[in-house]
Amino acid sequence: MTDEQQARRVDHYENFPVASWLCPPALRPPIAAIYWFARTADDLADEGDAPPEARLADLDAFGAELDRCASGQSATRWPEVFGPLQTSIRRFRLPVPLLHDLLSAFRQDVLKTSDGAGYADRAELLDYCRRSANPIGRLLLHLHDIEDGRSLRRSDAICSSLQLVNFWQDLSRDLPRGRRYLPDADCAQHGIEPLHPELADASARAALLRAECAWARKLMLEGAPLVHALPGRAGWELRLVVQGGLRILDKIEAQGFDTITRRPAIAALDAPALLWRAVRM
After folding, report:
1. How many CA atoms lie within 13 A of 103 on its CB side?
2. Among 104, 149, 243, 280, which one is most buried in terms of CB atoms within 10 A?
3. For 78-92, what is each residue's pLDDT tens digit?
4. Which fold has domain 118-281?
5. Within the chain, which residue ranges are assigned CATH 1.10.600.10?
6. Which residues are within 8 A (CB) of 255 and not within 5 positions of it... i.e. 6 or more apart?
């Protein structure tokens, strides 16, 4: 795989650090293997011009390769993904069901997008987050030998929040592609047609996104104490993850809760504020 492809895959998960310099060196290979797995599956679901049927077939094949990998068999496809992943599964006993949860979420993306379907309410959207984002956090905790219920719940809150932050940040990208993450019930509560929120009155859209950002912020703050459970550099990395998500929410608010016309993003100038906030945690 080329350096350009690697850079593109890492960039896709900009709110999740990928084997960064803060990560303990011994854990960089399994973390990289997990992200390459997730990134490749996400590309199968989302990149290119393949019809939904072909995407679903590829995801099914990818899941079959995961089962082969977990059983100790050599990969027949995507060896650059499943070779390192097999080593990590064997060495660190990675919970394979969490990897299958990710594939379930990617399949759902294909089906929802092809049907133009959205999410009925927050509970349905959180169930998607449970499979699309929360497994990443739980896998990382597993690598740090943290398995207690309170830490897992806090990890889920952070990961679900990050997923929601990405949704609210990316409305200008997702809506034209037929990806609808604003819950139908929330849209209706603000007098907005769920199929076309971009056509709603600007003040109604702002009120809706204000509520969605408050929800994401609440989840992030519920999970934030997890930073004190992680040792050393991992704890500092998580501090920056949490503060990165909160910074995006701040930027959404600063532009009047309008991400349908403009996408906010973390920039180099944000680094001092993120570091200061991380220290204050």
Report:
1. 20
2. 243
3. 999 999 999 999 999
4. Farnesyl Diphosphate Synthase (1.10.600)
5. 1-115, 118-281
6. 262, 264
Which ranges of 133-270 does DSSP label H, i.e. alpha helix?
134-143, 149-169, 171-174, 184-189, 202-223, 232-254
**Which residues, including other chains, have CB under 8 Å from residue 156's CB and lie 6 or more apart?**
130, 134, 137, 138, 223
DSSP H or E run through 43:
helix 28-46
CB 49, CB 57: distance < 8 Å? no
Look at residue 20 in the predicted model and tell me its pLDDT. Answer: 55
1-115: CATH, from 3.40.50.720, 3.80.10.10, 1.10.600.10, 2.40.100.20 = 1.10.600.10
240 exposed, middle or buried (CB, 10 Å; 0-12, 13-18, 19+)?
Answer: buried
Q: Is the pTM of this model over 0.85?
A: yes
CA-nearest of 230, 258, 256, 255 to 242 is 230
**CB of 17 within 8 A of CB of 241?**
yes
How is residue 261 annotated by DSSP?
S
Count how many residues are written for the chain: 281
Cβ atoms of residues 243 and 250 within 8 Å: no
pLDDT tens sequence across 83-136? 999 999 999 999 999 999 999 999 999 999 988 899 999 999 999 999 999 999
